[in-house]
Write a structure and sequence with these properties.
This is Endonuclease/exonuclease/phosphatase domain-containing protein. Helices cover 36% and strands 15% of the residues.
Length: 365
């Protein structure tokens, strides 16, 4: 979303059609976070999983100041409500820097002090590593949320990210602000957690985070609908009308047209469908003779925009390559300077090429 020339984050959630009935979107009042429920029966889990995907704006931003509620407090209220029903996952861009602050009560035990029967001591888990050594006010709020609800930060603790890599890169430096947080019961079911390399064409400053949870499911074969295959695409040019008419005059198509006109059938739905199919076959037969089909793109490739020439394509590849090197050596000032210098040149060149293309199109009209 763009407002007043600035970009703002909105959540996007995608579900496979085959899993749609078992991954339910829970209605909410805030557009900054969304709760999703994963059914335990379908995924063979011990408990239902309630996942909160969130974008938490900066604590001192104008957007946050306009809100009549605190986003972290509201999420914590939901966690308290859902944790009695199942396991909790909390993920997203939290704009919080937590350093290596402990998110559990160290040496917590019920051996020596009389405690309530409902009190469960914190498990003493692996020490969390983090390349980002800064702790800010929002980070303290996240740590307090974890301690209060027995939830643990997965970053820097799980296979795939044992060093706690940076998740955000910009001109001011690097930081870890994107997290996956899980409750203690679910923490041991997370097989791996990974922070991908920084790709500037994927996000302006964030790295993709991904994880895998121990679960299994089986999709049963449903009765397929009687759908017709998608029609063949043809390219229509200036001489296509004449060629198409000539194709209709071919002996084979003339015989089909004659039988179509002579055949006198009832007005039942089956007969109407058959007549419509026969007419489509005539047009398709003529098109195959006279028209040209567009070339198919290679699997996984997208058609390149007309103004995005080979020079821009090469520059884009170099930007991606430099971004990956920058994510591996984030504290090297030479690599950082080289990346952002080249990125500015690429952006400037891309805007110039686009303006030139628009101007050329306007001149043609």
């Amino acid at each position: 979303m763009i407002t007043n020339g600035r970009y703002y984050v909105e959540l996007g959630i995608f579900r496979r059609t085959s899993l749609k009935d078992h991954i339910k979107i829970i209605p909410g009042l805030s557009k900054d976070f969304q709760w999703i429920k994963f059914e335990k029966q379908f995924f063979c889990l011990q408990n239902d999983i309630y996942l909160c995907a969130a974008y938490v704006p900066l604590a001192n931003s104008s957007y946050t100041k306009k809100l009549d509620f605190d986003i972290i407090d509201q999420i914590e209220k939901d966690i308290v409500s859902y944790k009695s029903k199942g396991d909790i996952l909390f993920c997203g861009d939290l704009n919080a820097r937590t350093s290596t602050e402990e998110d559990y009560i160290a040496q917590d035990s019920s051996r020596y002090l009389p405690l309530f029967e409902s009190y469960k001591p914190d498990n003493q888990i692996r020490f969390r590593k983090n390349c980002d050594e800064t702790l800010d006010s929002r980070g303290k709020e996240i740590i307090d949320l974890c301690i209060s609800n027995q939830m643990r930060v997965v970053n820097g603790r799980c296979m795939g990210d044992l060093l706690g890599h940076f998740t955000c890169f910009n001109t001011h430096g690097q930081s870890t602000v994107d997290y996956l947080i899980a409750n203690e019961r679910l923490f041991n079911q997370i097989l791996y957690f990974r922070v991908s390399e920084f790709v500037s064409t994927f996000s302006d400053c964030h790295c993709k985070i991904s994880w895998e949870i121990l679960a299994k499911y089986q999709i049963t074969e449903t009765q397929s609908n009687n759908l017709h295959a998608a029609p063949v695409n043809f390219r229509w040019t200036e001489d296509s009308p004449l060629k198409f008419q000539q194709a209709l005059l071919s002996p084979d198509n003339q015989q089909k047209i004659s039988s179509f006109l002579i055949n006198d059938s009832d007005c039942s739905s089956e007969d109407i469908n058959k007549k419509a199919q026969d007419l489509c076959d005539i047009f398709l037969s003529a098109a195959k003779i006279s028209l040209v089909t567009p070339k198919k793109n290679k699997k996984g490739s997208r058609p390149r925009k007309k103004w995005f020439d080979s020079d821009l394509f090469k520059m884009r590849k170099n930007v991606i390559s430099l971004g990956k090197i920058y994510s591996r050596y984030p504290k090297d000032p030479v690599i950082k300077g080289r990346y952002y210098k080249y990125f500015r040149i690429y952006n400037k060149c891309r805007k110039v090429k686009y303006k030139q293309f628009i101007n050329s199109m306007l001149q043609k009209t």
